[in-house]
Amino acid sequence: MFRPLANEDQFLGHTFQYWLNSGETYTSIAQGNFSNLTTDVWIQRFNIFSETELPAFGTIDVTINCSCGNREVSKDYGLFVTYPLRNGDSLKSIGNETKLDEGLLQKYNPGVNFSQGSDLVYIPGKDQNGNYVPLPPPSCSRWWGDSWNIRRSSSCTSLISGLYICGILPEKKRGNGKMLSAQDGKDETSGNDEYETFGSGGPAAAGATGITRIRVDKSVEFSYEELANATDNFSMANKIGQGGFGAVYYAELRGEKTFPLQKVAIKKMEMEASREFLAEVKVLTHVHHLNLVRLIGFCVEGSLFVIYEYIDNGNLSQHLRSSGKEPMTWSIRVQIALDSARGLEYIHEHTHPIYIHRDIKSANILIDKNFRGKVADFGLAKLTEVGSSTVLTNKPVGTFGYMPAEYLQFGDVSAKVDVYAFGVVLYELISAKEAIFRSTESAAESKGLVALFDEVLNQPDPTEDLRKVVDPRLGDNYPIDSVLKMAQLAKACTQHDPQRRPSMKFVVVALMTLSSNTENFDVAAFYENPNLVNLMSGR
């Protein structure tokens, strides 16, 4: 489900940004990736490239048309599905399947031959309760003819299975491990934990669904009104952060019986971020751990909202670099590293399927009032089958400075992507520098922490050079041996070869050893024994 907008070309539609792959054409994109919901001619109309000159990489705009009804035809229908005609379809067959009058369908699609198998038609659709949605009263300005601008009135939907663009229509009560389905308005106590996409069974199914159902375990759906009231209409006074996919607001919302009010953080995302929204809700409804931020609930009204527990002491990046924060002691830094490693180790080793975070960084590690760490922001999380050696291929997303070479260059995704990023966080804990920084304000070029520490640790005796990069706010209040061992662990995590990086299980053990102040922790020794390298890497 997407929000279409009227535009100066006098049609209703929505434009998606599409990442090109080598060898693609407007025709293959329209027919394959967009399931014939648009045409090569229509795509080319809004792009500067000709059919034969598409670049191997980059983005183009893909526009999908839709309809919001026609008051002169009927006031009873205000929700429509964009449906690509297929071979074998006819006006009669679609009328029979949707149980709609053939004359009505033809009026909404004047001049369309329903039997030609290659056009788009607009079919009245039902909401999640199986009811047709009427056109709203004419209280807003006309847009073109008798169609209405979606920004002020009725909704339009489009079934885009090739893009997995999904909405959620959850039940308005507390979930308890139930599967919430938009298809029949009922919940199920069992089912596949993966995304299940409806709407592939023709126009009748598309009219009511084309939507995803996911498991919403122990989370609450809140209304938009509740969230708006709790944030003073999302005022700047309540805004506590801004991420890549939306702003974050502080609020107090209804809680359990024993706790009438609970402090929460509300992330507000645009409808276009549905993929990230689904990923975040998907992970946090299945994964529960002390060192992972807890999901409280969500809302899908106008925008997408994810509600988390409120962690009241900021994030690691703020504590390392904000002048308004007291410097953290070395022991606190080690503890936060261990907490974060435990959270990552849990999603890598103890869930099925396993999850890969893909955006580990100091800003996504929250710090509570007891200075314990929690991993947050699962909007880019990727799931895969059990086995840390599993590699997926995707276009790189995340934060520069934290992404390893195999991910940046080839899009290879494995648990070792998170391990690399965690190594950069360890370097941050030592130096308080950003992942990519300038040595001085006037420096022309930036430098990465991995390169900086490689220069230090490659010295025959790195101790003195290491002292020069330790966070100056620590003064001399740190054990240099402990700092060296953490730096060696970070170096292991940021190895160029992903197979030589340790598993998060090993990282947790190493940090537990470091935090206990024992002398048995020596990462370098592991690389002298191939069998131990395999063990360390989780193989």
From TrEMBL:
Q: Which PROSITE patterns match?
A: PROTEIN_KINASE_ATP (PS00107), PROTEIN_KINASE_DOM (PS50011), PROTEIN_KINASE_ST (PS00108)
Q: How does it sit in the membrane?
A: Single-pass membrane protein
Q: Which keywords label this protein?
A: ATP-binding, Cell membrane, Disulfide bond, Glycoprotein, Kinase, Membrane, Nucleotide-binding, Receptor, Serine/threonine-protein kinase, Signal, Transferase, Transmembrane, Transmembrane helix
Where exactly are the transmembrane stretches of this chain?
none
Which Pfam families is this protein grouped with?
Answer: LysM_RLK, PK_Tyr_Ser-Thr
Q: Which Gene3D superfamilies match?
A: Phosphorylase Kinase, domain 1, Transferase(Phosphotransferase) domain 1
Q: Which GO terms describe its molecular function?
A: ATP binding; protein serine/threonine kinase activity; transmembrane receptor protein kinase activity
Residues reported in the UniProt entry to bind ATP: 268
The main location class comes to: membrane
Please give an example of a GO cellular component term from this record: plasma membrane
Q: What is this protein called?
A: non-specific serine/threonine protein kinase
Name its species.
Cercis chinensis
The gene from which this protein is expressed is lyk1
